[in-house]
Structure formats: C-alpha cells, structure tokens
C-alpha cells in the first residue's frame, strides 16, 4: 500500500486470534500444547515452508513468541517445518520478488490485494486445500468473496482477521447531553442530530479523517451506508461521483459549516481522531473495534466510558470491512503450500491454541472482548464468541448494538483501491475546510482522475 498506507498495516494488525506476534504466548499456551505430545519425522521427509511474519529482531519478546508458536506447530505436524522471515508485504516489490524467485511460500497481505494478484497470476490456487478445511464454509460470504475469483470460483487465500467500521462514542458525554448511551445513532439523521447535541465550547460532536488515504477509506464506508458503489461490478469504471456520493459529502459539509458539530481543525488521520476521543475533545469517531487496545494501552482510557455502535445507515444497511489475508507463492511446490496452509490454519483457527492465547492475553492485561472478529458465521463463530466471553476483560455490554447489527459487510473495492482512496482524500479535505466547496464538481474531477488509473491498469 506504500508509505502513505502504513497505518492500514497497523490498523489491520492481527486481532485476538493471534495476539502480539503469534499464537501460544505465555505459559498457558506452552503448557497446553506440550500436553498434545510431540511427533518426529526423518529429515528426508520433512517439507519446509517460509513465511514473512517473523517480527523484527529488535523485538526479542515477539520473536521468542513467534518461534515458540512455530515449535508447537512442528511438534504437532509431523514432517512439516516453518522458517520465518521478517519481510512484510509490499505491493511495490511483490511482483519483482516473485519474478526473481525471492518470495516466501506464504505472505500476509491485505484484503485489497487479491483481485490484482489473481488477475496477474501472481498468487497460488488453494481451492482444494481451502474446501478441505472444515470451517471454510463458515466464512461470512462477504469475507469469502475477498479470497475468491468471481469468474471461476477458485480460492486464492485465507482471510485471518477482519474488522467492520463503526462508531466509537463517549458514553459519559452521551449521558451529559441527555442521550441514551445504550442507543447510539442508527441513521444519518440521528447521527447528525446527536453530533449537534453533543457539541460544546470544548467538545466537537464528531471528527473525520481526511489524510493518508483515510479520507477516501472513510468516504467509501459512508458510501456503503448510503447503498452506493465506488466502482462498477467489473471494476472498470469509477462510479463514486453519483448522487449518493454527493450526499455523503454534503452531509459532512453541512455538519462542518451549518451545524458546526465537527472539529474546526481538520486534516486528521485515525491516530489523531483516536487521540481526540481518548482526551475527551470529541464525542464520536468512526473506527474499527481493534483500536480498543490502543485506547487502553496508549491513553490509559477507562473502557467503561466508551461504546461502539454500528455505522449509521441511509438506505445501504452495510459497512466497510477490511483485514488481512494469507496468500501463497504460485511458484512454490504443492507440498510447501500445504505446509504453509496447515500452519496458517493452526496458528489462527485452532480452537485450543486460540483459547490458550486468549487466556494469556487476558492475564497480561491486553484487551480481550472487543468485537474484533467478523470473519465467520454459524457454529464456529459461536465457539469463538464463547471463548472471547470466557476471557473478556472489557465491558461487553457497551458493544451490544455493534455486535447485533444486521448490516452487510462490504469489502473494499476490488481494483486499485489505494489509488482510489488517494484520489478522494483531497475531495473530503475540501468539503471539511471550504464552505464553498462543490461536492459534485469535486467528485467528477476525482472520478475522471481515477478513471485514468483504471484504464491504465486494464491495458
């Protein structure tokens, strides 16, 4: 995603399914997995796969945890070996490294990447492995589609964590303003009204992001709540300059200049809006649930004071979802891909490993219980929920409206997503800083600019 998008890598960091670096952190994880017994195999029959998620050498604790997780996997998977490398996914070097034979067998990428990689035959088909896994069919359909080629139905990756954007809000400020903290806004009209009611001389009702591609990211989310589309179904045409796109910008502009319920200062990143929320300078922000850990660890916030609600809707009944996905080197042997696949599944979705990791996280004071996982439905998701509840150290009741939301999860657009966000940042900035900005004109200009990107990528 480039240097501008480093925040997305940290935003989409692994949730409670993996902990700080890999599963198996802490004595509980080690003791449990040791009880599973060990198996060995001859060196001649061992297959080794490389993966890019080894933490940086300077983070010795994380490296230790990663290595312990690998050791536990190898003890329970005869003839399979994992070698970690510290080489995070970089879209600017991926294709060159693949061509040069330097790519790991397994890489952790972003939800935005599979369409391009599939179209360029730069990722391995893992259909048989995925469908042979008992929980593949439990994926939320919107999540499964991220890893699937819509033209062929073939599967090219394993999503490992996901988020849905929602509204973080200050419960104390809600009460002081006469609003029910257990009933966050559910419509655009309510959202705008709440923001007006929450503002004061020292507090803004809402703060929005508009830099580092985050303006385009949030615009897409708002567009989904309106029922709009950012691109045509085939990804060949920019469609965000629609009436629904205009309505998104008009709402933000009206809140900023008519209602004066937004912050006077603008050009924020998510890190900025989180700080405003944590320091009681804004009542509501849009954010993913995984930021609870930062809210607590970086700002020592009392999580009892904050709630998370679903995105307010205006006809779309949807919210943007993103996350991380493991992909596999198309030049690797089937045997190496199988080892990598086994490791990804074990490391992320083995319920016993998951439980030991959650116990360790909760014991060490890390946030457990935030609504961070939106990958699955049905029985498997229920099992995950039960484990989370068992080890939760957060006020679960504060997230009930988010957890009970029926809004569909819509993935980020499939083509040149980050360049699209970059084209939209100035548009969002304009309506938040210029009372005379023309939303339709701005969107038309951005759509024309981004259409050139789409045309070039198709040639």
Précis, in short:
This protein has 459 residues and is an alpha/beta fold.
How would you describe the overall organization of this protein?
The protein is about 45% helix and about 10% strand. Helix 2 (about 25-35) runs antiparallel to helix 15 (about 350-365), helix 11 packs parallel to helix 18 and helix 18 runs antiparallel to helix 19 (about 440-459). It contains 19 helices and ten strands. Mean pLDDT is about 90; it is low at about 1-40. With about 450 residues, it is an alpha/beta fold. Helix 3 (about 60-75) links the parallel strand 1 and strand 2. It has two domains: about 5-160 and about 325-405, Periplasmic binding protein-like II (D-Maltodextrin-Binding Protein, domain 2), CATH 3.40.190; about 165-285 and about 415-459, D-Maltodextrin-Binding Protein, domain 2. The longest helix has 20 residues, at about 440-459.
């Amino acid at each position: 995603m480039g240097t501008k998008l480093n925040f997305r890598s940290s935003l989409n960091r692994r949730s409670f399914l993996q902990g700080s670096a890999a599963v198996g952190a802490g004595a509980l994880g080690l003791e449990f997995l040791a009880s599973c017994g060990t198996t060995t195999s001859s060196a001649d029959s061992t297959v080794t796969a490389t993966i890019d998620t080894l933490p940086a050498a300077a983070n010795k604790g994380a490296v230790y945890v990663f290595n312990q997780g690998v050791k536990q996997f190898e003890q329970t998977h005869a003839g399979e070996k994992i070698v970690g490398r510290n080489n995070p996914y970089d879209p600017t070097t991926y294709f060159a490294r693949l061509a040069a034979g330097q790519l790991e067998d397994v890489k952790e990428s972003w939800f935005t990447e599979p369409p391009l990689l599939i179209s360029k035959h730069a990722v391995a088909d893992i259909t048989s492995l995925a469908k042979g896994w008992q929980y593949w069919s439990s994926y939320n359909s919107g999540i499964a589609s991220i890893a699937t080629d819509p033209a062929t139905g073939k599967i090219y990756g394993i999503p490992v964590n996901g988020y849905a954007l929602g509204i973080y809000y200050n419960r104390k400020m809600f009460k002081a303003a006469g609003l029910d903290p257990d009933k966050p806004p559910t419509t655009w009209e309510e959202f705008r009204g709440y923001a007006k009611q929450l503002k004061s001389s020292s507090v803004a009702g809402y703060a929005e992001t508009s830099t580092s591609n985050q303006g385009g990211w949030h615009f897409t989310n708002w567009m989904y709540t309106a029922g709009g589309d950012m691109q045509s179904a085939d990804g060949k045409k920019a469609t965000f300059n629609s009436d629904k796109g205009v309505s998104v910008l008009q709402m933000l502009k009206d809140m900023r200049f008519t209602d004066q319920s937004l912050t006077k200062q603008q050009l924020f990143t998510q890190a900025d809006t989180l700080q405003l929320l944590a320091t009681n300078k804004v009542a509501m922000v849009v954010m993913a649930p995984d930021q609870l850990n930062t809210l607590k660890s970086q700002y020592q916030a009392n999580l009892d004071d904050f709630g998370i609600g679903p995105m307010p809707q205006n006809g779309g009944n949807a919210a943007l979802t993103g996350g991380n996905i493991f992909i596999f080197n198309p030049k690797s042997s089937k045997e190496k891909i199988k080892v990598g696949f086994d490791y990804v599944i074990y490391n992320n979705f083995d319920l016993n490993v998951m439980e030991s990791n959650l116990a360790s996280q909760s014991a060490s004071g890390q946030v457990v219980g935030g609504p961070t996982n939106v990958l699955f439905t049905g029985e498997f998701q229920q099992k995950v929920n039960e484990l989370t509840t068992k080890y939760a150290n957060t006020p679960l009741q504060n997230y009930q409206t988010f957890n009970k939301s029926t809004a569909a999860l819509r993935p980020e657009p499939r083509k040149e997503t980050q360049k699209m966000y970059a084209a939209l940042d100035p548009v969002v900035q304009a309506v938040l800083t210029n009372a005379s900005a023309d939303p339709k004109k701005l969107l038309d200009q951005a759509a024309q600019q981004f259409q050139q990107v789409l045309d070039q990528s198709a040639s």
